[in-house]
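TA notes. Do not distribute before section.
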Amino acid sequence: MNPRWIAFLKIVVLLLVVAALLMLFPPAFRFVEMAALELRYLWWMVLLLALAAWLIWGLGSKKK
């Protein structure tokens, strides 16, 4: 597999996991809904998404 397919599959899996968690945990869905309405919650959501991206792509990369 080339790196583009691997990156695409990581994004698809991430979206599926987020969708599953939102269905399993309605409070998480309400948090996302509140984040769209209030800016202070939006920043927490942005930080959580940045942490998730760093964990997926940052920790998996090889050291130079």
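Switch to the second chain here.
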Amino acid sequence: MLNKYNVDLNAVLVKPLYFGLLMNIFVPATLLLIAYFIEQGKIMERKLSFTNGDLLFWILLVMAVADGAMAVFMRQRLFFRPMIRTKETFANDLTAQVFKASIICYAITTAIAIYGFALYMVSGGFDRLFLFIFISFIAFQIIRPRHGFLKKVIEAQGKHVDERRYATPPK
């Protein structure tokens, strides 16, 4: 699907989407698998009981929700700032910058699953780990770029280029 700047939306979305799936599906699934084997083998003895871990659970839950909100905020901020260095390199710059911005947002949502795993390692509770992984997956579904969103990003980047507001090259 090409537009005024000859940007193929599918080509821009494929790499970030697959990398996001790797980060937000494979990593949490691996954490679940590790927790399952720990649970089955009774490998570790927990330092905190469920009741003593409640405060930590609520703290990490608030952090998880805050991280989800931060990922949404960062998505808006990173995707709508000037990304293009020159009008001639519009498509290449957009593809590279969408990938970078997506990775940052995906890392934030993956951290939510890691919070759950840390809670599991400290106080147990496979169901709590699963809750954090579920929150991580929902956050990933909210922030992952889609065609409609990318069309808005291209329109915003076009306005930046028309107004001669370019991204600064990295130093």
